[in-house]
Amino acid sequence: MTSTPTECRSRRLNVALGERSYPICIGPDQLGRAEPLRDWLPGNQALVVTNDTVADLYLDPVLTSLEGLHADALILPDGEAHKTVASCERIWDRLLQRRFERSCTVIALGGGVIGDLAGFAAAAYQRGVAFVQIPTTLLAQVDSSVGGKTGVNHPRGKNMIGAFHQPRGVIADTDVLATLPARELSAGLAEVIKYGLIRDPDFFVWLEDNLEALLARDTGALADTIERSCANKADVVAADEREQGVRATLNLGHTFGHAIETATGYSSWLHGEAVAAGMAMAAHLSADLGWLSEEEHHRVTALLRRAGLPLTPPQSMTPTQFLEIMAVDKKAQQGRIRLVLQQGIGRAIVTDSVPAERLRATLNHFTGGA
Ligand code: NAD
Ligand code: GLY
Residues near ligand 2 with C-beta < 6 Å? Predict the structure, then answer.
């Protein structure tokens, strides 16, 4: 993991993946600039995929930066409910309609929904074309734009259809966070807190000390947070790109969280909110197993609460519903649910050996049983 000033006019990190290595540029005033974006395009055809909310705010400067190229834009409806194969088909239709060739580039401009969707469309179009991420939410800047996981949801399971497809580069322009709704900022903080919990205890302490600055959108604190988060993610991805081992720890809170998103039809809960409730559930179970002290457990829930995040799942969910949905989690092996749990703050483990009655007790605790 390196951090050096460069032509990015910003802080620059490198995701070290051999010939598929790529830069992450973090800082203000990047949209609308031709470089480094144009350096990353293998040809002169580029399709910007975005949604109606983000297009109104940021599509013009991105198209300006592509002036003189054969560039087009596809504006999809906003929302997790549109992270579907049907939306991918709209991208493929446009690429074919405009006769985009193998040397074309798909540029994702938006949050994690657009990034995952456009990335999957790029992975499958003509068996894989170039892809660039311009993440515009905190969550996408600290997590989803980095690491090459792309995909769409299925009614039976979150992110169940997808591919690994690394971007050519990531431009995280911190200026765009000024327009992000407060609820979305909090959702992004859930994934930020996750890095402290799974592998960076000093960062967790830093977050305890600086949370108010982040909620007030202090630009320096936000840039530091994005850089530290991306550095953590890049290290994990470089060590285990295809999730054969340590990468699974990035899913702390996600097995419970994905169950919440699936049960609620990908509509009312934000991904980061579901992850936050999931991390609170994972912390409870970890404490119950004696892996997290009561003091540490309290620190976890206190920080999530201060970030404005939910600590409990919807009360309409039952333990049985959780167990049924969690059984189709991508981490499940031979039908056994695998969970990411904590052993102290800053250490996570992946386990399939939690006694069924302890898991059931945590689900009962959070749902009122039945
Ligand atoms: P999102 O993409 O739905 O964006 C949240 C909302 O903010 C949307 O309404 C969007 O239009 C709006 N928005 C985006 N940028 C804005 C801006 N600058 N100003 C104002 N509004 C803006 O949600 P998200 O939280 O960014 O991403 C969640 C998705 O990311 C989920 O589908 C999740 O599964 C996925 N994800 C993927 C990975 C990965 O590794 N691929 C990791 C984490 C999450
Ligand atoms: N957000 C989980 C991962 O990228 O592996």
Answer: 143, 147, 149, 247, 250-251
Q: How far apart are the first and last CA of the chain?
A: 47
Asked if 114 and 82 sit in the same domain, the reply is yes
Does one domain contain both 291 and 323? yes
Q: Whose Cα sits closest to atom 30 in ligand 1? A: 112
Q: Mind giving me the DSSP string for 139-171? A: HIIIIITSS-EEEEEETTEEEEEEEE---SEEE
Distance 118 CA to ligand 1 centre (A): 12
Joined together, the tokens standing for residue 17 give 């993946």
- Within this chain, do residues 153 and 225 fall inside the same structural domain, yes or no? no
pTM over 0.90: yes
Residues 190 and 168 in one domain: no
Task: Residue 221: give the domain boundaries.
Answer: 182-367
**1 found inside a domain:** no
Domain stop point among 144, 179, 214: 179
| H-helix or E-strand spanning residue 15 | strand 11-15
- Write the CATH number for 91: 3.40.50.1970
Higher pLDDT, 155 or 366: 366
* pLDDT tens-digit series, residues 38-69: 999 999 999 999 999 999 999 999 999 999 99
Q: Is residue 138 part of a domain?
A: yes
CA separation for the pair 133, 109 (Å, rounded) = 7
Centre of ligand 1 from the C-alpha of residue 139, in Å: 6
pLDDT digits (tens, 9 = 90+) for 307-319: 999 999 999 999 9
Index of the ligand 2 atom closest to the CA of residue 146: 4
In a shared domain, residues 170 and 197: no
Instruction: Confirm or reject: Cβ of 275 under 6 Å from ligand 1.
Output: no
Per the domain annotation, does 190 fall within a domain?
yes
Q: Verify whether residue 251 is a known catalytic residue.
A: yes
d(CA 159, CA 113): 10
Residue tagged 């109104």 (tokens): 56
The answer to whether position 275 is within a domain reads: yes
pLDDT at 216 over 60: yes
Q: Whose CA is nearest to atom 3 of ligand 2?
A: 250
- How many A from CA of 147 to the centre of ligand 2? 7
